[in-house]
Amino acid sequence: MNTLRIAICEDNDRDAEHLVSLINASGVSAEVSRFESGSAFLASRPAGRFDLVFFDIYMNGVLGVEAARALRETDDSCGVVFTTSSPNHMPESFDVGADQYLLKPVEYKKLRKVLKKRLALMEISRKTCIVNVKGQVIDIPLDNIYYVEVIGHNCHVHTANGVVETGSTMKLEDFARQLPSPRFQRCHKSYIVNMSYVEKVDRDFIMKNGNRVYIRRGDVAKYARELDKWRLYEAGNEI
Question: Do 108 and 142 fall into the same domain?
Fold first, then answer.
């Protein structure tokens, strides 16, 4: 079982203890670190240290949103959850890619859903796709794949590290068997797209890197709905 590395950034002892008790009761394996201020959290050099951070919005000194924004400058993969007694900062929280915004007192079911969702995303990011490139077998992490495109008789895997051309030994169907839905969608006879890297739908998928991925004619509305569903899932909702 994977162990979540969790940081709690909370200046109220009772609220911090409540979070710890909920985490312990969830059945999720976790290592928890406590910070009593945003400045103490940032001073610990948190980039890469944690899988999930709970920020209280209102703290002395550096506010939770400010601490989360600073974290995002060096770590864009860590999960962020805000806890607060007021919904006023909800728009700001999603500007920094928050997983969830939980009102105090935090409810057990909502907390457990956040933990389970983060574990599921970790599982996805650690899985790989096996690719045959000119007779050499390599593994590409699923989290690095933007989309797969057929050009001529070859598959081109567009990744965070560039484009990998597989040659004619692999078909798009070979990728479809390895790339799990609903995150990956066969949206066209020549494309499989990673929904996590889609910016918007404008007749086709417009990717966050600016590239365009074609959608089958007549299926634009369908995949716009699929994108909305995936975003809800990434935000911690069931689909």
Answer: no
Tokens at 16, concatenated: 């911090």
Those residues with Cβ within 8 angstroms of residue 17's Cβ, 6 or more apart along the chain or in another chain: none
Amino acid at 128: T
In a domain, 239, yes or no: no
Structure tokens at 134: 């000119």
Q: Do residues 113 and 56 share a domain?
A: yes
Residue 210 token pair: 């600016």
* Residue 31 sits in the same domain as residue 116: yes
Structure tokens at 219: 């299926």
pTM attached to this predicted model: 0.60
Residues spanned by the domain of 52: 4-125
Phi, psi of 211 (to 5 degrees): -70, 160
DSSP letter for each residue of 90-152: HHHHHHTT-SEEEESSPPHHHHHHHHHHHHHHHHHHH-EEEEEETTEEEEEEGGGEEEEEEET
- What pLDDT shows up at residue 137? 85
- The series of mean pLDDT values per 10 residues for the chain, 239 residues long, is 89 96 95 94 92 90 87 87 80 71 93 90 78 85 94 92 86 90 93 96 95 96 93 67
Listed in order, strand segments (DSSP E) in the chain are: 4-9, 30-35, 52-56, 79-84, 100-103, 128-133, 136-141, 145-151, 154-159, 162-165, 184-188, 191-194, 198-202, 204-207, 212-213
